[in-house]
Amino acid sequence: METAASDAETEQSEPEDLSLDLIFEILKNSRRREVLHYLRDLEDDERVSLGELAEHVAAIENDTTTDALTSSQRKRVYVGLYQCHLPKMDDMGVVDFNQDRGHVRLAPAAEHLMEYLDRPSDEAVVDWHHYYAVVSGIGVAILGLSAVMGFSGGVLLTLLGLVVATFAFCSGVHWLVDARAEA
User: Fold this and answer.
1) Residue 34 Cα to chain centre, angstroms
2) What distance in Å separates the CA atoms of residue 160 and residue 143, rounded to the nearest whole number?
3) In contact, 50 and 82? CB cutoff 8 Å
4) Which DSSP state fits 108?
5) Which of 44, 71, 39 is nearest to 55 (CA)?
6) What confidence tens digit (pLDDT) does each residue in 29-76 have?
7) Burial category of 61 from C-beta neighbours within 10 Å (exposed 0-12, middle 13-18, buried 19 and up)
8) Taking the alpha carbons of 112, 113, 114, 116 in that order, is the dihedral positive or negative?
9) Residues with Cβ within 8 Å of residue 108, at least 6 apart in sequence
10) What pLDDT digit, counting tens, does each position of 115-137 carry?
């Protein structure tokens, strides 16, 4: 008897693996990603009403606050979540959606999505090579000006020291940004 009960507990506590195709099927839609973001930020196993979730997603989609939403904006997102997205996510085992009560919570299988959900978008990626190219260009310009204008050794060393300090600063910021992204 105890073995069957412990097996059932183990099955419930270990989330089922999702295929990569299923993960990308879920994450390809921005509404589903927003649902996952919102539910992830709640307390463990906390349920949220469909209305509250729809308001949050609608506010993000319309770049406004929940207080400034129109009823049509709310309704459009509510209907989409109720009829399409939440049932699909429930079928895939990512959320627990009680359609009768209108409650949603994150399911254990959602943990497989979080590593993909938190990756920076292309818009958030910093093109560090541009910063380094600008600093290098400034260094080359200083060297060119020193040859043309005949800067003294002290002035030239000061200016080139500033270029090196700028490279060091950019490298430090680059390292910090990468370290935070990996954490």
Assistant:
1) 10
2) 8
3) yes
4) G
5) 71
6) 999 999 999 998 888 778 999 999 999 999 999 999 999 999 999 999
7) middle
8) positive
9) 12, 13, 14, 15
10) 887 655 555 667 788 888 888 88
Q: Where are the alpha helices (DSSP H) in the chain?
A: 2-13, 20-27, 30-40, 50-61, 71-80, 86-91, 111-117, 128-149, 153-182
Name the residue among 41, 51, 37 with its Cα closest to residue 102.
51
Kindly report the number of other CB atoms within 10 A of residue 18's CB atom: 19
Give dist(CA 97, CA 154) in Å, integer. 71
Phi then psi for residue 62, to 5 deg, are -100, 5
Q: Which amino acid appears at position 92 of this protein? A: M
What gap in Å lies between CA 16 and CA 169, rounded to an integer? Answer: 45
In angstroms, the Cα distances linking 7 to 10, 15, 112 are 5, 14, 22
Indicate the length of the chain as a whole number: 183
Longest alpha-carbon distance in the chain = 92
Where exactly are the structural domains of the chain? 15-119, 124-182
State how far the Cα of 39 lies from the Cα of 42, in Å rounded to an integer.
5
| Whole-number Å distance between alpha carbons of 27 and 105 | 17
Would you say 39 and 104 are in contact if contact means Cβ atoms under 8 Å apart?
Answer: yes
Fold of 15-119: Arc Repressor Mutant, subunit A (1.10.10)
